[in-house]
Amino acid sequence: MRVLGIETSCDETGVALFDTERGLLADALYSQVAMHAEYGGVVPELASRDHTRRLLPLIQQVLDEAGLVRADLDAIAYTAGPGLVGALMVGAATAHGMARALGIPVLGVHHMEGHLLAPMLEEDRPAFPFVALLVSGGHTQLVEVRGLGRYTLLGESVDDAAGEAFDKAAKMLGLDYPGGPQIARLAEHGDPARLRFPRPMTDRPGLDFSFSGLKTHTLTAIRQLEEAGKLDDQARADVARAFEEAVVDTLVIKCRRALDQTGLKRLVVAGGVSANTRLRERLERECAKRNARAYYPRGRFCTDNGAMIAYVGAQRLQAGERDETGVMKAVPRWPMDTLRKP
Ligand code: ATP
Ligand code: MG
Ligand code: FE
User: Fold this and answer.
1) CATH 3.30.420.40: which residues of the chain?
2) Gcp-like domain location, by residue (predicted)?
3) Class for domain 128-296, per CATH?
4) ipTM over 0.95
5) Which atom of ligand 1 lies nearest, measured to the CA of 167?
6) Binding site for substrate: what residues are annotated?
7) Using CA atoms, how far apart are residues 197 and 85, in angstroms rounded to an integer?
8) Ligand 1 neighbour 275 (Cβ under 6 A)
9) Does ligand 1 come within 6 angstroms of the Cβ of 114?
């Protein structure tokens, strides 16, 4: 079954072709990051308009790359949520329109299920069951995964997501959006011994996270350095380092707890923040200690992409799931634990 995947939930237009027999055939991405950078964050209306401009050319591009034409498609999957409603509607309307014209099934899929299963696109993929740490711009969750659609939420952020905290801390340091990669780069030159930031919610049992206090702590540290006339390039790098260490350490502590609690030996880390090198190093070490293994998507499938949507869509479409004719879905808020096994 050849499935076209469409991702338009936020600020990247992602398109891919997944074949259930041959695997990933092609994928293409257009990132709007440069356009939104000027505003310091994603502007929803601009995002929707840009998806409208980019989507059809990208679909043509992946078909060309795979040497296929539209009539070769067996089904279409699109991101139905969670995300920006206007942006989601562009993907949903395009998917439904094309599917109707071609007379093929179409299915709206969950964006976070896409992130969660993105490591399945790798040759070295995890077997079920596993613990997943989902760390992206809008989510920080620990999930026990028993199979497709068999998810138990173990813990999540009670306020900001980890990626969001990276983006906000970057803004405070005068860095561009998205802040995660920028903080990581700056932190490389930081002195880990100069500042120590708190590890929120690690002093009590449980698997929930909170990152908003860390944000305040970062702002206070920057102000104090500024008032003392000490906010030079080195100090900014030291703040970035202390911030990154605090987030990474917090995530590692909770992953360790989740592995202990479930007794599982496989850890999947996905979503934009899973691209963070420090986080990967620390998790590798932690897994090695307990005879466990960590799995990640390849770099470009850590952040939003069409491949993960094509993959999840293909699994569910193959099991017979599909949208009702003409009923397109765009769901801004959609808790992942409402998902079911197909
Ligand atoms: P969601 O998937 O929750 O709807 P999203 O799609 O906006 O949110 P992603 O595209 O998965 O999120 O990830 C983007 C986030 O990842 C941004 O917050 C960005 O700062 C962060 N990020 C990307 N690379 C890194 C990195 N190397 N270190 C830390 N954070 C990173
Ligand atoms: Mg994004
Ligand atoms: Fe995402």
Assistant:
1) 2-117+301-338, 128-296
2) 24-311
3) alpha beta
4) yes
5) 20
6) 134-138, 167, 180, 276
7) 36
8) yes
9) no
Residue of minimum CA distance from atom 4 in ligand 1: 138
Mutate to test the pocket of ligand 1, among 10, 140, 303 (most ligand atoms within 8 A of CB): 303
Evaluate the omega torsion of the peptide bond into residue 332 and state whether it is cis, within 30 degrees of 0.
no
Ligand 1 midpoint to CA 179 (Å): 9
297 C-beta closer than 6 A to ligand 1: no
- The beta strands (E) that lie in 11-170 are given as 12-19, 23-31, 75-81, 106-110, 130-135, 140-147, 150-156
CA–centroid distance, residue 304 to ligand 2 (Å): 6
Spatial separation of the C-alpha atoms in residues 311 and 308, rounded to whole Å:
5
List CB contacts of 181: < 8 A, sequence separation 6 or more.
275
pLDDT digit string (tens) for the chain, length 342 residues: 999 999 999 999 999 999 999 999 999 999 999 999 888 889 999 999 999 999 999 999 999 999 999 999 999 999 999 999 999 999 999 999 999 999 999 999 999 999 999 999 999 999 999 999 999 999 999 999 999 999 999 999 999 999 999 999 999 999 998 899 999 999 999 999 999 999 999 999 999 999 999 999 999 999 999 999 999 999 999 999 999 999 999 999 999 999 999 999 999 999 999 999 999 999 999 999 999 999 999 999 999 999 999 999 999 999 999 999 999 999 999 999 899 999
Q: Is residue 180 in contact with ligand 1, taking CB distance under 6 Å?
A: yes
pTM: 0.96
2-117+301-338 belongs to CATH 3.30.420.40: yes
C-beta 137 within 6 A of ligand 1: yes
C-beta of 138 in contact with ligand 1 (< 6 A): yes
Q: Which amino acid type is present at position 51?
A: H
Q: What is the CA radius of gyration of the chain?
A: 20
